[in-house]
Amino acid sequence: MNKKAVLQKTLVWVVQELICMASCAVAVMGYHLLIPGMFASQYTTKDRRRIVGIGLLLGLFFFAPAVTAVKYIIIMVATAIGIRFYIWANRSCSSFVAGIIAALVSAVINCSGELFVPGEKYGLVLGTCEGILSVGITVVMAYIWNRMEHMKLPDWWEDETVTPRKSKEDDEKIQNFATAVSGLSDAIGHWNQMQTTDMTENMGALEQEIMGNMCASCEGNMICLTKFGAQRTVSIQKMLRAVMEHRQRSDILKQEYVAGCPKYPGMVDEAIQAFGRIELNRSWYNRLVENRMVIAQQLDAMSELLTDWNKEEKPVIKKASVLISKIAFEAKEKGLLVDDVQLFENTRGKRSVRAVVCSKWGGGIPSERYARALEKALHRPMTLGRNARAIITREPTEILAYEDTVYHMLSGMATRKKDYSAVSGDSYGVFDNDKGKYYVCLSDGMGSGERARRESELVVELLQKLIEGGFSPATAIQMMNSAMVLQGDKDTFSTLDLSEVDLYSGDLSITKVGAAPTFIKRGEKVECLSAPSLPAGSRILEPAQPLHTTLGKGDFLVMVTDGVLEYLHVKEPEEKMCEIIASIRTDNATAMATTILNRVLLFAGNHAMDDMTVLALGMWEK
To answer: What's the CA gap between 144 and 209, in Å, rounded?
Structure first.
């Protein structure tokens, strides 16, 4: 433990002992009204029992008569037994419950003493008031003591061994690394531009190679050179251009570009072979350039991810100690202990809490109690991260909690594989993250059957992993396409339809890569959104421009594959689909998707000439 923590703990211990002793000095007509509440407020915390016990005993020794001291020792013992029994039965004991137990114990002991040994005129009244006052004192003192333990020492007391988790220097290092990665990507792109050559640049070298191989060994070389001179060079260049234009060998021989040359057929064959080597080398070079550009795109994506991580969440500085003490107090009230509490706030003003949590009294406590404690402390709806344990035990575990969203999505799906096909070539994925974003991904593999299914599954799985890893949808699509391009010579093409819904605001972003239009149902009105683009896996894929709109309570998002619209057999399939969706009266997402598919099949005579998939998603307030 560092010096700052030791000093803080010592100061808190001294102040708490003094408060306990001072509370014994407060007496009204022989009744020490603060003692029951003071004892009950701290007995629920294991580490404070000894402190409060020693302080109250010292205070009774100095400020109370022997008889009074014995009475309050009996009250404290009886209160401790009552609290222990309550904890044994419920695995938790809030300060309010502890105050009630102390109130009942003190009232019973005071009133029974007055009945057997009559004293002052107002003894029964004061004894009852002491019990009632214990409830309020217990709650107030529990919060004050908890606040004291989370106080910060003045800034002038600094321990050099203490290092914040994420300092300004760390932010600068991450940003510098992101800039360096981006610079490396630019360097690769510039290198490719410098090395790009045109086929005509190889004309001179090819001409020298042919003349060196054919003309140098010819006996009439000197006569040909003297007679024709520069005209021979022009004739050879015409023949080379014909070869580069991929003309037939027989046609090139008939033209006799180099008239009267006995080695002209061999010269043509030499040119064809040399040009074939150059073309093969250029093909491999183009593939190398493409792969370099893919690597450059991935470096750009990594740079973007690092920059986003650096800006996305910042620690909460203002009133942080107050909020942390509130969280610790409310968690203790639920029978939980928290440690190493960290508060963050993202660019949208939404807060998250990371803390190490364990059960205070053993046994298992539902994690939802911790979420409710956070809500009470922060005055915001909170939800636990996906990896949070369902039950909290004595074993400390780190839990990440986020501010809860305003909306939630309900999804439904209907699909029909192509007739006589073993499996459907369509794949889809529905997932969310801990930052209030909901994603729906739909992919249609090229063709049908097992190969199409594998291709579309690859698209969905890669995209989901990249987004869950922290990449933005646009960057994830570029990286996913890069991974498909790098598979090898065999091209893989699949459509991609990605919808991103912000469950805090209802904002919807739709990105389409060769996908069918998307439909949005708002009451009786239906909107069609479409965007033309190349399918995923294309070697040249321009960044897809997302479509933006907003969803509200009760709105439905409908996503379909190409096979659904293609076999409506009408002139305007998008308009017909809008009419079908508008005519459906249901709030059930699965029923809506099933009804849409069944009505489309009516237009196709109940035959599926292609794989068909319909996804329907409804938005509702929590």
So the answer is: 93
